[in-house]
Each structure stands twice: as C-alpha cells, then as structure tokens.
Amino acid sequence: MQRILVTRQLTEPAMALLRSGAAEGKYILDEWASSGPMPRPELLRRAAGASGLLITLSDKINGELLDAAGPQLKVVSTVSVGYDHVGVHECTARGVQVGNTPDVLTDATADLTVSLLLSTARLLPTAAACVKNGRWGPWHINWMCGADISGSTVGIVGLGRIGAAVARRLAGFNIGKLLYSGRNPAAQALVNHATVRFVNDDGSISSSPIPQHTPLEQLLRESDFVIATCALTDDTKLMFNKERFALMKPTATFVNSARGGIVDQDALYEALTTGRIARAGLDVTSPEPLPPKHPLLTLDNCLVLPHIGSATFNTRNAMCMRAVQNLYAGIAGQKVPFGVQA
Ligand code: GLV
Ligand code: GLV
C-alpha cells in the first residue's frame, strides 16, 4: 500500500480527513506528531518509500531529500503559496508533481500586508509602547507623526494575486498613483482586480488609479510606499540591495510580505539608520525566526512581524485542505489541481 508522510500536525479537519483515508485503507499515514517542524534526519529517514509528502515552508525539498525518498515518490504538496523551498526542477525531472495552495490565502495575506503598511506608516507599535512605558508625554506638534497614505504613490513589486488584492484594498485609502513592476506585465485580470470603481459625493463614478507597469528603478524612485509581494526566485533574490534602496525616497516606507530572501538585510539596516529610507515593515525575514538580537530589531523605524500573512484560522484550514487535495490527486496518479511548474 502507498505511504504518505505528513511532516507536521495540520488543522483538525485536515488531520481528520487524512486519518479517515488511512482508516479506510486508502494509504498508510505517517504523521509527525508535533505542530513544530520535523528534524531533518527524521524527515530524510521517514520520506524513504513514501509516495506523497505533505510539507510546509520549513521542509527543504532538494536532491538529497528526493534521493532519500526514492523513485516511488509521486507528489510533494506544500501548505503554502510560495514554493522557493522546493526544488521544482529536480522534482519535475524525476516525475514528481509539486502542488501549492494559491487563492485561499490571498485575502488574508493582503489584509496583513495593508495592516503592516498602515502600522509602519503610522508608527503604531512604537506609539502603543510609549503608552505602556510611561513615555506618553504632553502633546507635541511632531510627536509620533508618520506618513499619509492618501494621495501617495504606491509601488507594488510583483503584481500577482496578492499584490493585486493589496492594491484593491489601498484603492479605498484614496491613493494618488499605483505603479507595479514584475514579470507579468500582461496580466490584465490582475490589473482589473486591482482597480475599484466608486461613486463620488456628486454621484459621478470614478475609478481608483489604474496600475501602471513601470520599470523597477523608476518605481523605486517615484513611490512613497514600496510593497514587495513577489515570489522568491533566482531573479528576485537579494533584489532589494544597497543600490535599490539608494534609489528610493528618503521619506519612503518599504513593506515586505513576500520572502526575506529578496532583501539584503545589511543594506536595509544601513538604509534605515542613515535615513536613506524612512521606515520598513517586514512580515518575512532571513532567517526565520530572526534571532532576537538582530540589528533590525533595535530600530524604532523597523516593524518586524513573525511571518503571519496567512495566519487566520479559516485561511490556514483552507490551505491545509487544498494541500490534502493536491496530495490525493498526486498519489492517485492524477494531475494535481494546484500544481506548479519549474
Ligand atoms: C506563505 O508565506 C506562503 O507562501 O504561503
Ligand atoms: C503568489 O505569490 C500570489 O501572488 O498569489
């Protein structure tokens, strides 16, 4: 009988579904009993002989793992939309399908990205900490002043589903201009999704700014808010480096809810401490978790969140269910419904 390996505890409904399939004799289920990651040696050992692997961001799927798993492996199903931790080329070359969980996390991740942008622009964590620490002094004209969203130019690096959903939300904040860069200039559906029509006070109808495809360098020069929602690939690795931060406005806010690997963090630290840019909000870092003594965590103008973009109960469950769907199709030898190609 085929065996599947689930590398950590998922949501209850997903685990119940997986266990009922095993109880019906459809496959043998091997599950890691903890909600934390499986140690690498354990993963290598238990992947051996499996037909399907249900994994998360912390499990690196490379040649070593695929060798350890063996030639019967049919599918690698990750509970994430990002798949930079999976060697898709190597999987494809061995006839192993790769599945991910797009769409179901788009809204939650866009909500978090906009929350991060607003919190960073308006200094919420610093302001809240002052209240708690007895540093709420007399009213001062410049105290805790941040940046306006309304009328601003927003640049989205990577207008995918999440980027478009971020733009759609920001339309409601009356932004002035919307620029985007990325490998997908022809994605008209995304541009449409990012645009919102609304009724003015006088009854006339207008539209939020139509996203304009813009070369990256120009986007960085013109944007008040630079938001990264691109995938981590060979092309985007460390793309936010010293030269790119130098192009940005000294008043700019940088927001990253994509992957830590797209940022040169030393360059970001320098940009934040020398006033090259005003502030940054990061939901992703490199490494994760970021060590508590990391220099970025000493800065008042840098807000760091622990990679919680998709962290709502419903969204995480929908991701798990989608990952199980991919796994089932894969072990049945069918095309996975949400597959990724190299
Ligand atoms: C989260 O970062 C994901 O890729 O789902
Ligand atoms: C993937 O990164 C997306 O935008 O859905």
UniProtKB/TrEMBL annotation:
Sorted UniProt keywords: Oxidoreductase, Pyruvate
KW Acetylation (keyword) present: no
CDD domains: GDH
GO cellular component, as recorded: cytosol
Domain of life: Eukaryota
Annotated D-isomer specific 2-hydroxyacid dehydrogenase NAD-binding domain residues: 115-309
Taxon lineage: Eukaryota, Filasterea, Capsaspora
Annotated D-isomer specific 2-hydroxyacid dehydrogenase catalytic domain residues: 4-338
A Gene Ontology molecular function term of the record: glyoxylate reductase (NADPH) activity
Source organism of this protein record: Capsaspora owczarzaki (strain ATCC 30864)
Protein name: Glyoxylate reductase/hydroxypyruvate reductase
PANTHER family in the record: 2-HYDROXYACID DEHYDROGENASE-RELATED, GLYOXYLATE REDUCTASE_HYDROXYPYRUVATE REDUCTASE
Pfam families according to UniProt: 2-Hacid_dh, 2-Hacid_dh_C
SUPFAM superfamilies xrefs: Formate/glycerate dehydrogenase catalytic domain-like (SSF52283), NAD(P)-binding Rossmann-fold domains (SSF51735)
TM segment ranges: none
Family per similarity comment: Belongs to the D-isomer specific 2-hydroxyacid dehydrogenase family.
